[in-house]
Amino acid sequence: MILHEQFIRMARRNPERMAIIDRTLDKRVTYSKALIGAIILSKKFRKYDPGFVGVMVPTSAGCALATLGVLMSGRIPVMINYSTGAESNAKYAQQKCGFKTIITSKALLEKVGCPKSEGMVFMEEIMAGIGTGDKIKAALLSKLPASAIINMTYKGGEDDTIAVLFTSGSEKDPKAVPLTNKNISSNIESFGSYVGITEKDTILSNLVFFHIFGLTVNLWTPLYYGITMVTYANPLDFQTVSRIAREERPTMMVGTPSFFWGYLHKSEPGDFKSVRIMVSGADKCPDALRDGYIQKHGVTLLEGYGATETSPVISVNSHDYNRPGSTGKPIPGVQLRIEHLESGEECNVGEIGKILVKGPSVMNGYYEDPEQTKEAIKDGWYNTGDMGYLDSDGYLWHSGRFKRFVKIGGEMVSLVKVENTLEKYLPAGVSCCVVDVQDEVRGSSIIATVTIEVNKSEILKKMGEELPNIALPKHFVVIRELPMMGTGKIDFRSVSKIVQEIFDKES
């Protein structure tokens, strides 16, 4: 399925249905108006160089229409992270993918403190340059049958790249991930059918579109099904997002555990009662978080798992098949293989190994990086770099990144498991991240970082009832604000660096 063509079909099928409710700018855009806007922008974007065009616009109607316009003009949107290090991220994207033009906004640059650089064009100026003639012509074109409008736009193919995103860079420099129409559309169809998305749904699109979770589920899923997205530019404004949920009554919402914790703490009882599909991903979902949404809002928080390279959803729980603590069953079309670290043989049920994924939503490879591609994909199987196991009923249990396993005393210890155990015994509202530092005797020592001082002896006593002694943290370090990435995930690499620097100074 060609995504921008599917949008055109939906817009002509239900022109008066609300496409975007933009709560940042207080704008409501029907599918008819969205189509007109996308047609106008596609014509404006045709003056840019062919190939890649950077998109660095906050989650909004403007970002949605700009992304559509870029695709309909025959260009490929490169989604740029503006939340942290916008200037360096923009330059990195330009250099990595070899393009010049970046569509952004003056308001965004001012807000994030990013100077204007070569190639940047502003949405404010583009919109100001749209004349009455442009609007009339686009409005007339938008009334034509969908097939006629499609014939006048760029004719894409299923294997055409329709977005380039970057990996989080939590462990190394970000890699450029090109995704095709087939990658994303197959993921939308499989995920949508598995969790039961219908044309009556409304999606609260609070996630950033430069992250694959936001791009696929928050942007393309509603446009694919012809349903409404409610956008808000700041997912960290927990109180406002909660109020928007109460007012707009969305039926679907996705996010990370850190975001969902924020919404839980800042919401009033019943703010999210309209949400029937609520999915948490990117990090482990604690039991206390699930319990909190049941108690406060009567909503079941479902856990899922995915990766940028898989467009993103790999597995997810649903209301029909929900095993709390697991990341659910693989969605239709996705094959999973759990492979033994050393032998390469397929693991038995319940045996932890490398998580490999195969299917139409898996990328073809990293952009102009054959070495990393060869390392990541073998015989069509993508190595996620994660560890986990399948239980006897086919549910996937995520055990953490391979690089978040450390060898202590000859045994492999999962830092994620230590982290999950620690979380259970921390006071409400306290965040943590477990890392390791080099130890000449043991090889590694486990360090727990927390956001406030805690009763270490009491916590260690409780953790010792669940974990062997070698897996218990040897030190607790207070970091008042744990570094976060724009996706809402704790920046594990930055935390590790901070802790290592502390111990280097003390040694």
Structure description:
The structure is a single chain. With 507 residues, the chain is of the alpha/beta class. Among the domains are: 232 residues, ANL, N-terminal domain (Rossmann fold, 3-Layer(aba) Sandwich), CATH 3.40.50; 98 residues, ANL, C-terminal domain (GMP Synthetase, Chain A, domain 3), CATH 3.30.300.30. It has 17 helices and 25 strands. The strands form 6 sheets. It has a 9-stranded mixed sheet with strand order 2-1-10-9-11-12-13-14-15. Strands 16, 17, 18, 19 and 20 form a 5-stranded antiparallel sheet that branches. Strands 4-3-5-6 form a 4-stranded parallel sheet, sandwiched between helices. A hairpin with a 2-residue loop joins strand 21 and strand 22. Helix 1 packs antiparallel against helix 8 and helix 1 runs parallel beside helix 10. The model has no long low-confidence stretch (mean pLDDT 92).
In DSSP terms (H or I, runs of 4 or more residues), the helix count works out at 17
Query: Could you tell me the strand content as a percent range?
Result: 15-25%
Provide the CATH top-level class of the domain at 1-232.
Alpha Beta
Mean pLDDT: 92
Unreliable spans are none
Helix content: 25-40%
Provide the gyration radius in Å: 23 Å
Instruction: Write down the overall geometry.
Output: globular
How are the strands ordered across the major sheet? 2-1-10-9-11-12-13-14-15
CATH fold name of the domain at 1-232: Rossmann fold
- Major sheet description: 9 strands, mixed
Structural class of the secondary structure composition?
alpha/beta
CATH architecture of the domain at 1-232: 3-Layer(aba) Sandwich
The CATH homologous superfamily of the domain at 1-232: ANL, N-terminal domain
Distance N to C terminus? 58 Å
Number of beta strands = 25
